[in-house]
Design brief:
Layout lengths: L8 H10 L7 H21 L1 H4 L18 H16 L2 E6 L6 E2 L8 E9 L10 E9 L9 H4 L6 E9 L3 E6 L4 E7 L4 E6 L10 E3 L10 H12 L3 E2 L5 H11 L2 E4 L10 E2 H14 L3 E3 L16 E2 L1 E4 L1 H18 L1
The structure holds 2,5-anhydro-1,6-di-O-phosphono-D-glucitol and manganese (II) ion (MN) (2 copies).
């Protein structure tokens, strides 16, 4: 039987690097290391039910050791892979209050920010979860990295991606020239190119929001939800941003998490959730905004900053923005 040539993630990264005349290979190497870390996380996620380590930071395992919660385990795995990588001088994570310098490679060029396990409330119930990452070139030139190397606008990302631990494990990444998706073939332990040059549909029929919060949303978001309900749209909401955005990227639609009265800044984090996913959505021809401005243009002030977010098919995001603008005209 004839097979098409399989393109592995590593091969794809190296091929893409060849098209960049001044590339030194450091970014390629960093991306490969993240790919490796995610294979280990994928293995651990897949056996979570089996060994009952999910969501239990406070219990002991049979040998009396503390059982690590899966999101902390993913965090530690990523940090140790990035420590060993040599291309990364510092990391910031959802699970770490402050950024960490990688002492042994403090002169390296890149910093990596990540959400080690997004959608962690879904771990216990075997629903899709994922890892989200963003890579920036450091701003400072020498010495240890500083907070300012991490507090950069999303437009400065040199690469971004996610790994989705779903019915299969998929890695989707971009370096700003196309968005490509790879599916993990567990029999050979390789991510294989399965979704080359992903393009998001210009419009879609699915809206994705926690509609249970409807009464807490501002009037513009409520008006847009009313519009969705009165259109021929379906509501799909997994509760793992990475999975909801993956569906949106492939099938079209809109994912949004507006501000609420109790969370006036929204819930989702700018630096390691919204920015990387916004870079992917835009790279595939979509839009990502906080309702007023482009997510990638928001100036960050702190590592764990939150933002309202509307991302997906360009026509649907523009429509949501129009409802928000209109509501603001009425109230101001
Ligand atoms: P995390 O598990 O990394 O803390 O993120 C959870 C986030 C995101 O994945 C999801 O879109 C959102 O929380 C769901 O929030 P609600 O339960 O408020 O809808
Ligand atoms: Mn998250
Ligand atoms: Mn998380």
């Amino acid at each position: 039987m004839m097979h098409n040539k399989i393109i592995s993630l590593d091969e794809h990264i190296i091929r893409s690097q060849r098209n960049l005349p001044y590339a030194t290979g450091e970014l390629s190497s960093l991306l490969r290391d993240i790919g490796l870390a995610s294979k280990i996380v994928s293995r651990e996620v897949n056996k979570a039910g089996l060994v009952d380590i999910a969501g239990r930071a406070d219990v002991e395992n049979q040998s009396g050791d503390d059982v690590q919660k899966l999101d902390m385990l993913a965090n530690d795995l990523l940090i140790s892979c990035l420590r060993n990588s040599g291309e990364c001088c510092g990391i910031a994570s959802e699970e770490e209050e402050d950024f960490k310098t990688i002492e042994t490679h403090k002169f390296s060029k890149y910093v990596v920010l990540f959400d080690p396990l997004d959608g962690s409330s879904n771990i216990d119930v075997n629903v899709s979860i994922g890892t989200i990452f963003a890579i920036y070139r450091r701003k400072t030139f020498d010495g240890e990295c500083t907070k300012y190397d991490f507090l950069q606008k999303g437009v400065k990302q040199v690469a971004a991606g996610y790994v989705l631990y779903g019915s299969s494990t998929m890695l989707v990444y971009t370096t700003g020239r196309g968005v490509n998706g790879f599916t993990l073939d567990p029999s050979i332990g390789e991510f294989c190119l399965s979704h080359p040059n992903i393009q998001i549909p210009k419009s879609g029929k699915v809206y994705s929001v926690n509609q249970g919060n409807y009464n807490k949303y501002p009037s513009g978001a409520r008006a847009y939800i009313d519009h969705c309900m009165n259109s021929d749209y379906s509501l799909r909401y997994i509760g793992s941003m990475v999975a909801d955005v993956h569906r949106t990227l492939i099938k079209g639609g809109i994912f949004f998490y507006p501000a609420t009265k109790s969370k006036p800044e929204g819930k989702l984090r700018l630096l390691y959730e919204c920015n990387p996913l916004a870079m992917l959505i835009e790279g595939a021809g979509g839009k990502a905004s906080n309702g007023r401005e482009r997510i990638l243009e928001i100036e960050p002030h702190e590592l764990h900053q939150k933002t309202a977010v509307f991302m997906g098919s360009p026509m649907m995001v523009e429509e949501a923005e129009a409802y928000i603008r209109e509501a603001e005209l009425v109230t101001t």
